[in-house]
Structures are given as C-alpha cells and as structure tokens.
Amino acid sequence: GQQVMQIPQYQHVQEGEDFTTYCNSSTTLSNIQWYKQRPGGHPVFLIQLVKSGEVKKQKRLTFQFGEAKKNSSLHITATQTTDVGTYFCAGRWASGTYKYIFGTGTRLKVLA
Amino acid sequence: DGGITQSPKYLFRKEGQNVTLSCEQNLNHDAMYWYRQDPGQGLRLIYYSQIVNDFQKGDIAEGYSVSREKKESFPLTVTSAQKNPTAFYLCASTLLAGEGNEQFFGPGTRLTVL
After folding, report:
1. Do residues B94 and B104 make contact, with C-beta atoms less than 8 angstroms apart?
2. Closest CA to B100 of A78, A50, A111
3. Which of B26, B35, B33, B21 is nearest to B75 (CA)?
4. For residue B90, which residues of chain A lie inside 8 Å, CB to CB?
5. E strand map for A9-99
6. How many Å separate Cα A84 from the centre of its chain?
7. Mean of the per-residue pLDDT values of chain A
8. Is B6 helix (H, G, I), strand (E, B) or coil?
9. Which tens digit of pLDDT belongs to each residue from B8-32?
10. Counting one residue from A and one from B, how many pairs have CB atoms under 8 Å apart?
11. Residue B103: partners with Cβ closer than 8 Å, 6 or more residues away
12. Residues of chain B positioned with their CB less than 8 A from the CB of A56
C-alpha cells in the first residue's frame, strides 16, 4: 500500500543548531503537506508543496519538494526551544481523492 | 468562532461496549477525516468523507463505523470488534475547493478502554 517513510524518528539538538527531517514515498505524490504537533496538542498545518522542485520558506523553516515528487524535507535553521514538537509530513497520491497518508513523524527536542 | 470541536476530551469505557466520538465543524468544510494516534506514533487514517452521505475506508477501518448525514458532523463509533481501541482520536476537516486543502484538526478525544 501507499506509505510515507519519515526519518529520523527522534532528534535532539542544542539550541541554535540546525535540524532536518526527511519524507520519502516509493511512488510519485500529487502534493505533500507538513504539520507540527506540540506535546499534548493536535497537529497544526505548516505548509503544502505541490510543484516539482518547489522550495518554500517560513522564517527559519525551509520546505523542499523533490524533482520527482517522491521526497520532501523540512529544515529548521538555528533551532529555538519553541520548535519542540513532532513534525509530520502527509502525502497525497491521486488527484481527485483527498486521502492523505501521514509519515511516522520526527520528534524534535531542543536543549537550552 | 469558527473551528472544529471534538467531545469529550477524555472517555473511559468498559471492554465490549460501543462508544461514539463526536466531531463537529462550522468551517463549511467539505471533507472530514478520522485519524488514530498511538503513543509515539504517527496518524493512521480510519475513515474519511468528501461529501455528505458518502465516506471511504482508510487504512485501519476494521472495528470502526462512521456516518455523514450532515456536512457539519462526522461521528465515529468504536465498536466492540476493535481489538485495541485505547488511543488518541483526531478529527480533521478541509475545504476541497482551491489549492489549499490544509487539514484543520480538532483537539482530540483520548479513549481508554478498561
């Protein structure tokens, strides 16, 4: 079945260090979304990538969609304690159906 | 205030009992989703609905049932056939028109079966 693999599962960084999480699909995606879930909370939408090779930035966050639309990454520059949480990607395959499959998530801890 | 609500926040049930989780949205969203999240795990899709009176199974639909009689409501019933029902259940909705399609999540219901 359709799966999205996400790595790493956990990441501990010192405050100020950079952080990257990666998502991979074995087949071409229609689009991919990224969400952040704070401890004890619910996922909150960050961004959607649709086009091949697309790069979007939100302040210290940079999102990329691969040329083949099979992989994506989220990079945080100079992490802060407010970045703590679990980051999920969610992939959609076929246009016309709005079913999303979530990756297993990367749990980020930032040490002050 | 526009948003998506789930009730109750915490729910305890005895093994063998069916239980229904509520999900309501006043965002005029077309599609609604139910996900299950286990500790330290990602979100797994149970059911989703893109239009009233229609819904599709997700990856782990066994032991669950849903209905979509109104656009605003998408209740999930956890039946006694679900072998491991204790989990965090999240409901989400999205507007299908346009390119956005971001999913708005409710606060979740934490179900514990004793």
Report:
1. yes
2. A50
3. B21
4. 42-43
5. 10-14, 19-25, 31-37, 44-49, 55-58, 61-65, 71-76, 85-92
6. 14
7. 94
8. strand
9. 999 999 988 999 999 999 999 999 9
10. 59
11. A33, A35, A43, A45, A90, A100, B33, B92, B93, B94
12. none
